[in-house]
Design brief:
Chains A, B: Keywords: ATP-binding, Kinase, Magnesium, Metal-binding, Nucleotide-binding, Thiamine biosynthesis, Transferase. Chains A, B: Its EC number is 2.7.4.16. Chains A, B: It catalyses: thiamine phosphate + ATP = thiamine diphosphate + ADP. Chains A, B: GO terms for molecular function: ATP binding; magnesium ion binding; thiamine-phosphate kinase activity. Two copies of one chain form a homodimer. Chain A has about 325 residues and is of the alpha+beta class. Chain A folds into three domains: about 150 residues, 60s Ribosomal Protein L30, Chain: A; about 100 residues, PurM-like C-terminal domain (Phosphoribosyl-aminoimidazole Synthetase, Chain A, domain 2); about 35 residues, no CATH class. In chain A, the strands form three sheets. A seven-stranded mixed beta sheet of chain A has the order 8-10-7-11-9-12-13. In chain A, a hairpin with a 2-residue loop joins strand 12 and strand 13. In chain A, helix 3 packs parallel to helix 4. The longest helix of chain A has 18 residues. The C terminus of chain A is likely disordered. Chains A and B meet through strand 2, strand 3, strand 4, strand 5 and strand 6 of A and strand 2, strand 3, strand 4, strand 5 and strand 6 of B. Strand 2 of chain A pairs antiparallel with strand 3 of chain B, so a sheet runs across the interface.
């Protein structure tokens, strides 16, 4: 299973010119309300009404970051958009636009890339209306690679950094904890062949058995709108939960020079997965005491004087999360 | 020859944590004058004093876009910066910042990536002072891949598009024509082994024999400052010469609905390479008749009523340039 296997018919990017491929892909991409000069010139020009803009960039590489046996083109476009949009929201900004660079093997059908474009459109439409793709690049590579850069507008808000948590603040989260990691676990234990390799033929059964968690892994739905709401409510610190609650909460504690104590009763029945599972793409934020929490935020702990992370008052030093540097073996693919 | 061969000593990115790798790389990167919030948070925040910003993104993939046998880490950082800066300049904007995503094999030494960072710093310092790297991403991949997104500020200028050339305009270029292609030709004919594969052991001799052209290929020096100067002088159309003068001039003609006639006497002794050689990264612009050409621009032709490209009054339909879709064989590497 792979790119070419998923759609054997039709022109490949090795056969089409870049221009021909882009002519088919661009009409499917979402438009941005911020566009002043769109795709087709050397560069795009975007409105920055705030006089500042927020920018983040992230790559998704086949192997460490996704498997074609499990993710279709729409899934990949969706996830590449959603994870970047979440980083913009975590600053308190409203996502305005994306640029997308894709490197794909020559045998990739252009139709497969149209599916990727559809995923970008669906994600922007559902998660961040008004945000669209304003430019891109298409290259050939032996390794399928997505590089997305996202932009946001602060609308006059102060950007919410990781470093602003203060003793006495409430620790809150928006979005489910551990669900994406549970989905990845289900895929790696049940959607594999006898040798433990990803097996597309077993995907449907695993999706049917674990619809919510597999969907959280393959098509995450970050609470984008809660980012600006948190900033408006006075959030003192915020970040996108990408590497597991424990690791990310420790980052806020360290950047802010405080201790964070999480309440295990607020973290759901599977405490360990909630703490160490990566790719939640919820928002972790701290608010001054007494703040009426906005949107989907709920209290999960408190900020104290001190250093580091505690869970139920006891130091929690497990790393958790997913570090592709340490855990991906490039030779296994 | 490859990444691991160039520096066998030291920690690799497969051994270091992402955090440890970034801690070594970031201090070497150039700083941006536009930075309001720099690296280390979910996203950066940049000043956009004009109320708009210009953005372009481009990937460089090992194989189709560069060879490790010929390019060292500083060369690659330099070229990834320079080619993106040139797209910003071609809109008439001043480059302000870059974000850089790199995917590299696990065996890549962190020291090698420090060299890449040095290349980014040298290029920004020399070509676009005040422009710096404000964020990035580091991933593991079997295929070494750079994805750079660049930003620029128009300072109140109207962006210069490809579509504004008018009959009667002067066609002008800033930067050498065909030199980078001549360098690539020298590498592919002289810096290869008996099987025609890139051979690092022959590089020094080829550089010594063809210093200007090989340098134009490996460390291009686009005339970044001439982009805003052209806009100020009233340029009606402009683009970055990346795919060969003939192909790029035809793009301006097509987007503008005009004919462009180039004067062969103005294109130097090797007319064919000047017309069809890619990766010049000079600026091609059109100016109203009588304009005093700014910076390094020199006249090479004129805009007429009609369609398409002519050279010395005769239609020129050769494609030229370099299309990795059509010309790169991924199986050969």
């Amino acid at each position: 299973m792979g790119i070419s296997g998923s759609d054997a018919a039709g022109t490949t990017i090795g056969e089409a010119s870049e221009r021909e491929a882009l002519r088919r892909i661009f009409p499917r991409l979402p438009e941005s309300d911020a566009t002043l000069v769109g795709p087709g010139d050397d560069a795009a020009v975007l409105a920055a009404p705030d006089g500042r803009f927020v920018v983040t960039t992230d790559m998704m590489v086949h192997g460490p970051d996704f498997r074609l046996a499990w993710s279709g083109p729409e899934d990949l476009g969706w996830k590449a958009a959603a994870t970047n949009l979440s980083d913009i929201a975590a600053m308190g900004a409203v996502p305005t636009a994306l640029v997308v660079a894709i490197a794909a093997p020559p045998e990739t059908p252009v139709a497969w890339l149209e599916g990727v474009a559809d995923g970008f459109r669906l994600a922007c439409t559902e998660l961040a209306p008004g945000c669209g793709v304003v430019g891109g690049d298409l290259s050939v590579s032996a390794t399928l690679t997505f590089a997305v850069t996202a932009f946001g507008d602060l609308g006059g808000r102060r950007p919410v950094l990781r470093s602003g948590a203060r003793p006495g603040d409430v620790v809150a989260v928006s979005g489910a904890l551990g669900r994406a990691a549970a989905g990845l676990h289900a895929l790696f234990t049940e959607a594999v062949d006898a040798a433990g390799e990803p097996d597309a033929s077993r995907l449907a059964a695993v999706v049917a058995a674990h619809p919510d968690t597999v969907s959280a892994q393959l098509r995450p739905r970050p609470p984008i709108g809660d980012g600006p709401l948190a900033a408006d409510a006075g959030a003192t610190a915020m970040l996108d939960l990408s590497d597991g609650l424990a690791l990310d909460a420790r980052r806020v504690a360290e950047a802010s020079g405080v201790a964070i104590d999480l309440d295990p009763a607020a973290l759901g029945p599977d405490l360990r997965t909630a703490l160490t599972g990566g790719e939640d793409h919820g928002l972790l934020a701290t608010f001054p005491p007494g703040t009426r929490l906005p949107g989907g935020f709920r209290t999960i702990g408190a900020v104290h004087e001190g250093r580091g992370l505690r869970v139920g008052g006891r130091p929690f030093d497990e790393r958790g999360g997913w570090d592709p540097y340490l855990e991906w073996d490039g030779r296994r693919g």
